[in-house]
Amino acid sequence: MGEREYLEYYALNRRGVSGWFRMRGYTIERKLYALHRITGILIVLFMLPHFYSTGWHPGIWWDALLGIIVTFHVANGVRLTLLELLGAGIGKPLLVKKPFQRPVSIEGRQRYLLALTVLLFIVLAVIWSYYAVIVKPLMGG
Amino acid sequence: MMEQSSIDLWKPVKVVKLKIYRYNPKKDFSPKWKEYEIEVSRGTTILDALIRIKEEVDPSLSFRYSCGQALCGSCAMMVNGRQMLVCRTRVLEAAHNRDFVELRPLDNFPVIRDLAGDFTSFFEKHRAIKPWIIRRDFEELDNPTGEYKQTIEEYARYYQFTDCLKCGACYSACPTVATDHEYLGPQALAQAYRYMVDSRDDGLDERIAILDSDHGCWRCHFAASCSDVCPKYVDPAQGIQLLKKLIVRRKFGLKPHRPSDALPSKIGEVKRR
Amino acid sequence: MRESTKMLLHYIAGVLIVVTGLIHLLANNDPGIGKLITGNVYLYLTNMAIFLAALLYHALNGVRVILIELVPDMCWTKLIGWAILLIGIATYIVGIQVLLMALGLV
């Protein structure tokens, strides 16, 4: 890093990629955002060898891990589709604000949706792991 | 018996260390951290402490402030790594059982000096979404015949977003802005929504052309940090999601809002006597 | 194409992946239901064609979103968009060819 870049780095004061994965001190939605991005990249990385030789799989236990990654991305993706595209659970703008009112979008119905998402993730991950670890070896590979 | 009086509020109770970011991009090669010890009382805000340091200890300390009562939005800073208005955050509240407070300039804003950031691009983005009422009835505007009246339901659609101070806390907290300097940012998008759902406004399609671009509203992925840090509870995250919904509805030629959507449930609960 | 069209397709592709991906997984992993799907070649082929298209669109658009957030300058944004589109079309053609060869239809 030259002197010019060094000065620019501190003067611009931009977080850079570390800003995407900065989770401490913020709400749980930010953690889910970071995890959604990480799992998305991991799925794309899995897809490449799977396309190259169809039927390629990393092995039983890695398959279960892949299941956790995929089911998280699916469950959170369903939540994001509902929130961003359909505006479901995001709430209505307030006319009356109480002192120290919490934002509507990060409490109430949106948080119930978040709890349902986690529940959906756990159910899907258990089903996938059951198939990956028990059914698939019984089928013989 | 302990009686709370206004005198107690200003009695020094603790010595707190303020760890402050010192950097002048024109002179210094890299930023430095300086520590100042200061006696605080229960009512001392961080802004009070900063002013006292500037007056009594180190006159070279730079920061921006104006009203001191959370109405102007000049004094947003990173307090212990979180965006806050320092004028309404008390030192003891921020120190929270420890005895030091860390102060940095807002992330994602270029540093002018020490704790003051450069808001030029932030205001340019706010200006880019045309934050004013756009009317098409020029005849009426030239020769006015009456007021533009609104019902309480129409007012309730956008009232929440009018509280914005432009303090930059949401822009600083946004993970997309951390890398994408072309992204409009939560403040501008929430304000765009505020003007688009205003019943007096005719500029819906004009603004959609600006917002529905590569670095417009679709770069928001609902990390909800903007709503989390907003000091005036404007809730920009909600505004952006509703804006996306509005754009999609507009795309299919649907009416932007159903009447039943408009009225917040809270109004029904108000009892009249 | 407006950004809202791209993102709307992104969400629709996501829903399609859940449906067709579930069929793909059941066909390969469940002994009972698997025979019903793999037994009919055209059902399997149609499912795979939709699944591959939706998956490629969703994945590559996701990569595009990440890249243009990383390199936001206007010329890079356009370059990334076109490069991703070409990669997607090429991969889809190769994928369909491999699928047809594997099923013995070509």
Describe this structure in words.
The complex is a heterotrimer of chains A (about 140), B (about 270) and C (about 110). Chain A has about 140 residues and is an all-alpha fold. Chain A has helices spanning about 5-10, 30-50, 60-85, 110-140. The mean pLDDT of chain A is about 85. Chain B has helices spanning about 5-10, 45-55, 90-95, 120-130, 140, 150-160, 170-175, 185-195, 205-210, 225-230, 235-250, 260, 265-270, and strands spanning about 10-20, 30-40, 75-80, 80-85, 100-105, 110-115, 115. In chain B, a hairpin with a 2-residue loop joins strand 3 (about 75-80) and strand 4 (about 80-85). Chain B is elongated, with a radius of gyration of 22 Å. Chain C has a single domain, classed as 3 helical TM bundles of succinate and fumarate reductases (Up-down Bundle), CATH 1.20.1300. Chain C is elongated, with a radius of gyration of 16 Å. At the A-B interface, helix 1, helix 2 and helix 3 of A face helix 6, helix 10, helix 11 and helix 13 of B.
SSE blueprint and pairings:
The complex is a heterotrimer of chains A (141), B (273) and C (106).
Chain A: H1 3-12, H2 28-52, H3 60-85, H4 109-139
Chain B: H1 6-9, E1 12-22, E2 32-41, H2 46-57, E3 76-79, E4 82-85, H3 91-95, E5 100-104, E6 111-113, E7 116-117, H4 120-128, H5 138-142, H6 152-158, H7 169-173, H8 186-196, H9 204-211, H10 225-229, H11 236-251, H12 259-262, H13 265-268
Parallel strand pairs in B: 1-5
Antiparallel strand pairs in B: 1-2, 3-4, 3-5, 6-7
Chain C: H1 3-29, H2 31-39, H3 41-70, H4 74-103
Helix pairs in contact in C: 1-2, 1-3, 3-4
